[in-house]
Structure formats: structure tokens, C-alpha cells
Amino acid sequence: MKQYQTDLASLMLRVALGVMFLAHGLTKLLVFTPTGTAQYFESIGFPGFVGYLTMVFEIGGGLLLLLGILTRIVSSLTVIQMVVIAFIHSVNGWSFSNAGGGWEYPAFMALTALSLALLGSGRFSVLSKNREY
């Protein structure tokens, strides 16, 4: 495989994951509100502050991924987050369209993030010159 193909694959994964994270983080912020998000996290057994941290991570991490900054770190943290979410949703079955959401989507996102963590930012990033973070 040629290097530009790897760099292009990294760019596509960064944009896809970054946009998804922004969409989910902004939904928590603007639709569910920070307080509502914290209450939801409490309802599933987490401390409320985890909801706030999740919003910050999803919005900030999404922006960092779009720019190609700290890609390996953000992607690695995403793998952890998505594995936890897949585990939480595992009681609802496979399909994410099941009541309460299944584990298929978070598992897919975990694998996407793992792939990006292995690839790194690529040359089509703000920190070009093939620096890997």
C-alpha cells in the first residue's frame, strides 16, 4: 500500500469519528443539556460528573480528531469509552435499534477508533510532516 493511501485512510477515519463525536457531544450539550446528561449518567449508575466529562471529551476530542491533533491519544481513549458503552448496552442485545440500544454500534466505533489509533494522524493533518501523536 502506498503512503498516500494510508494517509487518506487516516483522514477519512479521523473525519468520520470526529464528526460522530461532535454530533454526540453537541447533542448532549444542546438537546439533553448538561444537567439532563448528568442525570442520565446517574440513572445508569455513574456519578453525574461523568456526563460532563463525556460531553467535554466528545466535543473536544471530535475537534482534535478533525484537526489531526493528538489522534492516537484521543482514539485510544475512545476505544476505552466505546468498550464500556458496548458493555453497558450488551444487556439490550446486538442491534442498536433494539430498545435501549444494543452493542453493535459502540463495538463498531471501538474498532474504528482502534484502527485510527494504529494509523495515527497521517500527513493530512494540522500537524503534518508525519508527526505521530
UniProtKB/TrEMBL annotation:
InterPro entries xref list: DoxX, DoxX-like_oxidoreductase
Entry keyword set: Cell membrane, Membrane, Transmembrane, Transmembrane helix
Pfam families cross-referenced by the UniProt entry: DoxX
Record-level GO cellular component terms: plasma membrane
Bilayer-spanning residue ranges: 12-32, 44-70, 77-95, 107-126
Subcellular location: Cell membrane
Membrane topology: Multi-pass membrane protein
Family: Belongs to the DoxX family.
Name of the featured protein: Putative oxidoreductase
Naturally occurring in which organism (per UniProt): Gilliamella bombicola
